[in-house]
């Protein structure tokens, strides 16, 4: 069967080809005349096609494109107010111009529902002062949150942020959370990207995150974007784009200008605490909008990515890689506050 069918196809093709060429022969002279006439319009037609193609690539549709380039810089396309007292540890887009956010610091930790355009906190769930809120993700109708230096996490109802239950997970610490709708991805400040079963919270997979053979330490807030896990690298202005299959970093987003811009205008925000590091990525998949903010940043930015072409000034190693943060030895000294 297998050897018969290709030759059968081939002969069919040949016969149809010869039929086609017969037709061509009979009408070729008139066809040629027509073509010659239309050839005069070819440059015009080409121009129209180019215009149509360029028009298709308007800013709206460009938003949907995640460049494949290894290194991207950002352009701010919108800025929105952000609660400058929010020590952002988890951020996600919940649809309908709504964000969900988890904030840290003892006595100030919370889960909140925030209006994108105004930054107004619509629903607030304050946490017990024993807990330091960390990563947050939305799985179905439930928000999962982890806490710093503890294996304790919480599940909330997305509609009113009422607490469903407390859970324990198996990561050594809780820093970031994200989901692809199947599993939860977790980070604990090390270079490990964990996969957790959302129903049992058991660790079902682990990958060491690496860039050109270097381990990428201090993985913090996470977001799932187009098949990749994006991670803020703590104490840097870099977002690592990680392949969840093997932990390989497939690209970087470098955005030092956002924090620098805020620091330049810090006097305008003087009533607030100090502007801390970039932390918080939210992806609106439906509309292709990407948002970022930071700890105690008075702004949340909608950004677009632009590939950096040619040699990159300032190596990724220097900008984005840090020595490992040793959670155990810093236990109870609250280094995140000290380093604020
Ligand atoms: C979207 O948000 C607006 C304003 O907060 C609210 O009135 C509306 O009911 C929401 N729509 C959905 C589908 O949740
Ligand atoms: C929150 O919403 C859920 C349904 O989504 C409901 O069962 C629960 O009673 C609500 N809790 C509060 C405090 O309103």
Give an account of the 3D structure.
By secondary structure, the protein is α+β, with helices and mostly antiparallel strands. The chain has two domains: 4-56, no CATH class; 69-338, Beta Barrel (Lipocalin), CATH 2.40.128.630. 21% of the residues lie in helices and 38% in strands. It contains six helices and 22 strands. It has an eight-stranded mixed β-sheet with strand order 16-17-18-19-1-22-21-20. Strands 2-3-4-5 form a four-stranded antiparallel β-sheet, with no helix packed on it. Strands 6-7-8-9 form a four-stranded antiparallel β-sheet, with no helix packed on it. A hairpin with a 6-residue loop joins strand 18 and strand 19. The protein is globular and about 55 Å long. The N and C termini lie far apart (71 Å). Mean pLDDT is 82; it is low at 1-38, 54-64 and 329-340. One 2-acetamido-2-deoxy-beta-D-glucopyranose (NAG) binds next to loops. One 2-acetamido-2-deoxy-beta-D-glucopyranose (NAG) is lined by residues 157, 159-160, 162.
């Amino acid at each position: 069967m297998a050897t018969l069918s290709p030759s059968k196809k081939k002969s069919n093709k040949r016969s149809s080809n010869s039929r086609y060429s017969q037709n061509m022969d009979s009408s070729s002279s008139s066809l040629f005349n027509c073509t010659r006439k239309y050839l005069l319009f070819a440059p015009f037609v080409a121009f129209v096609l180019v215009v149509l193609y360029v028009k298709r690539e308007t800013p709206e549709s460009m938003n949907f494109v995640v460049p494949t380039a290894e290194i991207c810089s950002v352009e701010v396309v919108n800025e929105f107010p952000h609660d400058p007292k929010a020590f952002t540890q988890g951020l996600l887009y919940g649809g309908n111009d709504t964000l969900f956010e988890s904030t840290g610091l003892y006595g100030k930790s919370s889960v909140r529902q925030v209006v994108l355009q105004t930054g107004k906190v619509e629903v607030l769930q304050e946490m017990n002062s024993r807990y330091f809120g960390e990563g947050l993700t939305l799985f179905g109708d439930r928000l999962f949150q982890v806490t710093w230096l503890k294996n304790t996490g919480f599940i909330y109802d997305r509609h009113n942020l009422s607490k469903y239950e407390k859970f324990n997970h198996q990561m050594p610490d809780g820093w970031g959370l994200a989901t692809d709708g199947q599993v939860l991805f977790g980070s604990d400040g090390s270079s490990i990207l964990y996969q957790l079963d959302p129903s049992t919270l058991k660790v079902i997979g682990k990958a060491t995150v690496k860039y050109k053979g270097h381990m990428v330490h201090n993985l913090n807030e996470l977001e799932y974007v187009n098949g990749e896990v994006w991670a803020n690298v703590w104490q840097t202005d870099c977002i690592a784009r990680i392949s969840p299959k093997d932990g390989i970093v497939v690209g970087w987003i470098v955005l030092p200008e956002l924090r620098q811009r805020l620091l330049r205008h810090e006097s305008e925000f003087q009533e607030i605490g100090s502007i801390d590091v970039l932390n918080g990525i939210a992806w609106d998949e439906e509309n292709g909008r990407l948002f970022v903010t930071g700890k105690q940043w008075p702004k949340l930015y909608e950004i677009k990515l632009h590939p950096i072409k040619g040699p990159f000034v300032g190596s990724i190693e220097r900008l984005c890689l840090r020595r490992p943060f040793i959670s155990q030895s810093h236990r109870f000294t609250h280094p995140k506050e000290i380093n604020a």
